[in-house]
Design a protein that fits this description.
Length: 218
């Protein structure tokens, strides 16, 4: 299984979970300008180029929620019809504040409008939720996790947070893995602003999520 970790901030410098992952590919992108919350066109070209060697399959750690738009770059690699399952305390479907720039708060809307293979979006953590055991099973799914959906006992993020527990998320992921083909998963919601303070909690949660997903994705 492919594992890619994208360093956009110092968040992962205070964690060690990925050091034990066999063949984990680390992409240090901290020096790329024009990436925080909004992704300018030049930075977008650079990031797309760095992701060329990889497919959508596997597990992708994409740093802080300020960079959740990286999910969009991974989704562009999916070459079959699919549904997106999103765990997030924010809908990320807001129109851009200016121009057509890709952003952490609008990448879901951009995906919906630009990806022909994306057929449905199911969000958990904000707004109306479809029971997860009723999701259509005729298409594979891609899972995107923003840890800000979880309570502060289980994650420290750069955004206001929800109240989902890690155990509840694992139960929901178990339902998805048992009944759906999983194309790939990305995980954000680490803290660049409080990297040192959040390192221990986020390291434990990232370890748990990776161990579970690597054992259950078929």
């Amino acid at each position: 299984m492919n594992t890619v970790l994208m360093k956009m901030t110092e968040a992962y410098d205070y964690q060690s979970f990925y050091e034990k992952i066999e063949d984990c590919c680390i992409l240090d992108c901290k020096s790329i300008e024009g990436t925080r919350c909004y992704l300018d066109d030049l930075a977008k070209e650079v990031l797309i180029d760095r992701l060329v060697p990889f497919g959508a399959d596997g597990i992708h750690f994409i740093d802080s929620g300020n960079y959740h738009y990286l999910s969009l770059l991974w989704l562009t690699k999916v070459q079959e019809d699919f549904n997106l399952v999103l765990f997030d305390h924010h809908p990320d479907n807001q129109p851009p504040s200016f121009g057509m720039i890709t952003s952490c708060g609008g990448w879901v809307l951009e995906a919906q409008e630009t990806l022909p293979h994306l057929k449905g979006i199911y969000t958990y953590g904000v707004g109306e939720e479809v029971p997860i055991d009723t999701l259509p099973r005729d298409l594979p799914i891609y899972i995107s996790i923003d840890k800000d959906v979880m309570r502060t006992d289980d994650s420290i993020t750069d955004w206001d947070q929800g109240d989902m527990t890690l155990s509840t998320m694992l139960e929901m992921l178990s339902e998805l893995c048992m009944n759906h083909k999983i194309i790939g998963v990305d995980i954000c919601g680490d803290s660049g602003e409080n990297a040192a303070a959040g390192g221990k909690i986020n390291n434990l949660t990232n370890t748990t999520l990776f161990d579970f997903l690597s054992e259950n994705i078929i």
